[in-house]
Amino acid sequence: MTSPSGSAELDEEILAWAEARCRLLYEGKALAHRSCGIALAETFGRVSHSYQALRRGGITGTGTCGAIQGGLLVLGEVFGDPDPTAPTTPELRQAADRYQTLVREHLGPSQSTICNDLTSPFETFKSDARHHMCTHLAAQMARRVAQVICELGGTVERRPRPDQ
Asked: Distance between CA 55 and CA 82 in Å, rounded?
């Protein structure tokens, strides 16, 4: 994989930045905790308020993991047509396909993407172990979103660290 500039090293820098940025936003140690979807949105400079609905798999836990779904929405904002009546762009179709392949590679082909299924191994949702797993998953999805953006010739803007 190379970036539009032809530099594989630059891509790795960008991928590592996206992963670290999302981890920082989600884990809640150095900064106030963001939900998984909001952490993805803020990593890529998107307005985050609608991403709050992705928290805990659509609030109820029965929907797709907010980090996974948030990544797809970011790609929609990057590669989608701003005309609401336009068909899906070929770039967005390609981005969604590539992202879903990367998600499957990360999770395994038979792993559910439903929040409750992903978190079911943990007795308590608010446990440190579950939080660690979700932090890792959100950071990995940010890395994969950045990878897709780079592979398809888009730009990932490294944003300054938020105050809180």
From this structure: 25
For the stretch 148-164, pLDDT in tens is: 999 999 999 998 777 75
At residue 118, φ and ψ (nearest 5 deg) are -65, -35
Tell me the C-alpha distance between 57 and 68, whole Å.
Answer: 9
Q: How many residues does the chain have?
A: 164
> What would the pLDDT profile of 130-143 be if each residue is shown by its tens digit?
999 999 999 999 99
Q: How far is CA 54 from CA 110, 147, 163, in A?
A: 22, 22, 23
Task: Please identify which residue in the block is written with the tokens 């990932």.
Answer: 156
d(CA 62, CA 41): 21
